[in-house]
Design brief:
Elements lengths: L25 H16 L4 E3 L9 E4 L11 E12 L2 E7 L2 E10 L2 E7 L5 E7 H14 L10 H10 L1
Antiparallel strand pairs: 1-2, 2-3, 3-6, 4-5, 6-7
Length: about 160
């Protein structure tokens, strides 16, 4: 079980665009497994490689506890190819401890990616899975949820408390 240190707040790597993965060797599988271990240890549902200090385009997601029909997945070089709808939702981030915000996201997305073995995959996602995918792909582009905040949306969070 490998647990990586999480990069937090304004760590410079969180603001960099991650590089595309070219080598699909065993080290990529080891990295993905360590990312899953780290995410589970931190009680998260998604994690991008830059959040552990690795500037590569790989994300892991596990929302199986709340969406049993969505198995855990590791995606390499993910791209959102289509987005539809819009909804507000509360989000947190492992790289921004103790911070929650209301974020506007598409309600549905289409994804193209690769598995850790290099196989091409594509699928559509809705609801929570679509939100988590967008959040993690943002990390690969150096975007944090704080960059997505609109003042009028944050009033909704304040009203709920």
């Amino acid at each position: 079980m490998a647990i990586f240190d999480l990069r937090v707040n304004e760590d410079p790597i969180l603001r960099q665009k991650a590089t595309e993965v070219q080598n699909f060797d065993t080290s990529l599988s080891v990295l993905a497994n360590g990312m899953f271990d780290t995410m589970h240890e931190a009680k998260g549902i998604g994690l991008a490689a830059p959040q552990i200090g690795v500037s590569q385009r790989i994300i892991v997601i596990d929302i199986e506890d709340v969406a049993p029909d969505c198995p855990p997945m590791a995606l390499v070089n993910p791209k959102i190819t289509q987005a539809s709808g819009e909804a507000l939702g509360e989000e947190g981030c492992l790289s921004l401890p103790d911070f929650r915000a209301i974020v506007r996201r598409a309600t549905g997305v289409s994804i193209q990616a690769q598995t850790v073995s290099g196989e091409s995959v594509g699928f559509d996602a809705e609801g929570l899975m679509a939100r988590v995918l967008q959040h993690e792909v943002d990390h690969l582009d150096g975007i944090l949820i704080t960059d997505r905040l609109l003042p009028e949306d944050q009033e909704l969070l304040e009203d709920a408390n």
